[in-house]
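= Tokenised fold =
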Amino acid sequence: MSDVLGDTRVETSSWSLSEQDSFSLTRTVRYVHPVNAPMAPPAASATKEQCFRRFGDEGMVLETQTVVNDVPMADCFYIDDRMLVEPTPEGGVALTAAFEVRFVKRTMFRKVINGTSVIEVTKGIRKYEAYLRRAIEEEDAKAKVTAGAEEEGEGEEEQTERVESKGRIDVSIKEEGGAAPPPAEGEAA
């Protein structure tokens, strides 16, 4: 996934049981990310603290707190995001992503920081969506080949239909505490 986002020097700790509860896993990810912001360097180091929870067959959630270093006013804010993955009644997957830019200090650049962050986080989520769609399509293609090789005749069509239904993914993105993020390329505003 790092290559999709353009991240470099990625260091990821192993998942470990959370100290807060016995049903969450946590990890830390450190990396260098390209920056497209006014008065900022072309790349900046960042740290993500992630918490993962799975709720049986009902879904899972990944909560992340991202701190960006090496950019102006980095000590004034961090970004919280939450990705919820759950099954749909049609047999697909729904990914709901929500995020918020949280300010911990006052700054006269709040609007600039918020606006740039919303655009960058939304772009990242859209890239993640595209990555997931490709991964699902690849898995569906592998499953079709396997299903076709294992089953011949009438059952093959049913198997293929079932496998294809797994490939659906619905994505919604919400900026918490603010307006909806800009639409993806090709979407109506």
Summary: Confidence is low (pLDDT under 50) at residues 153-168. Residues 2-175 form one domain. The longest helix spans residues 110-150. The chain has one domain: 2-175.
